[in-house]
Write a sequence for this structure.
C-alpha cells in the first residue's frame, strides 16, 4: 500500500501563528521561495513527547534565515512553544517535526525585500530513515556526482532549501543503482558528507570526521562527538581524502532522521559495523530519551 501523499493527510499545521487544518496549509504558486529557493527549514525528532534539542534547532532556524537575509517574525521561545503545540494537537509522542520559513508572494523577482516572511510547522509519524534490517547490517553508499560548494559561493552554514537540490539529485542517482545514499566530496575533492547526514570513520580506535567548513555542522553530529568523548574515544575533525576510504575499519552516518546508522560500503570500499558504531548507536538512543535527559 502506497503512503498517503503529504497534501492529503489529516492533522494540523501551525501556519503563521494559527493552527490550520492540514489540507488548508497552502502557499501561492508565485511565492518567492518556490522560484528562488528563499526558504530555510529544520528536521527534528520528538522522543517520548519531547523534541530533542528543540531550542538548538530553533536557534539554527533563525540563524539560517539571517544568512539568507531575512528575519523570522517569531523568537526562539515562540518557535519552541509552537512546535510543542503542533505535537500535542496531532497527538504525537514520537514523531518528526518540520519547521520551515520562507519569503512570500508580494514581489516576484530576484529582489524581494518587501515580501512577507512566513513560518509553518508540521509534525508526523516517521520511523527510522533507512530500512531497519538494512540499518543493522549497514547501509550501502555510492559516490555522488555533485560536490558541496565553496563557502565563498553559497551560504553553506544555512539549512537552506536551495542547497539541497544537488543532494536530491545525488540520492536519486544512488537509489537507482541500489544504494541507500551517496557520499559527497567538497569543492576541493575532499570527503564532506552524505546527502542529508554527516559521516564518521574509525581507525585504530579513533574516530575521524570531516571538518564542517562547507556544510552543516549537524546538531546530531555534535551530539555524537560529545557522546564519543564521554566514552573516552579520540575524535579527530580533519580533512579526509577519498583515497583514505580504504584505510578505515568502521563507518557510520549521523543526522536527525538517520540518527546513528552504520555503513557497510562506500562504492567499492567495505566496512564492518563494530564496537564503536554499536556503542554510539546505543548511547545516542539513550541520550534522546526524555528520562535519560532529565536524569
Amino acid at each position: 500500500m502506497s503512503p498517503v501523499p503529504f497534501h492529503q493527510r489529516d492533522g494540523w499545521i501551525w501556519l503563521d501563528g494559527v493552527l490550520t487544518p492540514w489540507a488548508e496549509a497552502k502557499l501561492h504558486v508565485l511565492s518567492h521561495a518556490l522560484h528562488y529557493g528563499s526558504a530555510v527549514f529544520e528536521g527534528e525528532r520528538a522522543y517520548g513527547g519531547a523534541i530533542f534539542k528543540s531550542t538548538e534547532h530553533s536557534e539554527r532556524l533563525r540563524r539560517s534565515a539571517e544568512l539568507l537575509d531575512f528575519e523570522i517574525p517569531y523568537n526562539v521561545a515562540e518557535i519552541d512553544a509552537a512546535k510543542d503545540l503542533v505535537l500535542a494537537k496531532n497527538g504525537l509522542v514520537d514523531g518528526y517535526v518540520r519547521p520551515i520559513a520562507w519569503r512570500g508572494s508580494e514581489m516576484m523577482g530576484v529582489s524581494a525585500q518587501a515580501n512577507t516572511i512566513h513560518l509553518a510547522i508540521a509534525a508526523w509519524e516517521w520511523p527510522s530513515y533507512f530500512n531497519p534490517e538494512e540499518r543493522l547490517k549497514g547501509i550501502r553508499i555510492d559516490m555522488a556526482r555533485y560536490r558541496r560548494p565553496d563557502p565563498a559561493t553559497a551560504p553553506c552554514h544555512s539549512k537552506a532549501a536551495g542547497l539541497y537540490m544537488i543532494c536530491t539529485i545525488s540520492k536519486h542517482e544512488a537509489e537507482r543503482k541500489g544504494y541507500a545514499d551517496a557520499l559527497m566530496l567538497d569543492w576541493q575533492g575532499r570527503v564532506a558528507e552524505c546527502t542529508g547526514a554527516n559521516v564518521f570513520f574509525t581507525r585504530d580506535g579513533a574516530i575521524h570526521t570531516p571538518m564542517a567548513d562547507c556544510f552543516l555542522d549537524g546538531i546530531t553530529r555534535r551530539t555524537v562527538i560529545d557522546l564519543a568523548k564521554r566514552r573516552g574515544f579520540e575524535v579527530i575533525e580533519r580533512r579526509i581524502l577519498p583515497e583514505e576510504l580504504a584505510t578505515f575499519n568502521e563507518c557510520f552516518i549521523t543526522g536527525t532522521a538517520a540518527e546513528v546508522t552504520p555503513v557497510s560500503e562506500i562504492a567499492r570500499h567495505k566496512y564492518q559495523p563494530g564496537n564503536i558504531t554499536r556503542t554510539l548507536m546505543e548511547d545516542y538512543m539513550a541520550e534522546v530519551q526524555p528520562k535519560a535527559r532529565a536524569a
About this structure: Residues 101 and 119 are 4 Å apart (CA to CA). The helical segments are 32-36, 54-67, 76-89, 132-137, 165-176, 219-230, 275-287, 290-294. The radius of gyration is 19 Å. The chain has two domains: 6-124, 132-294.
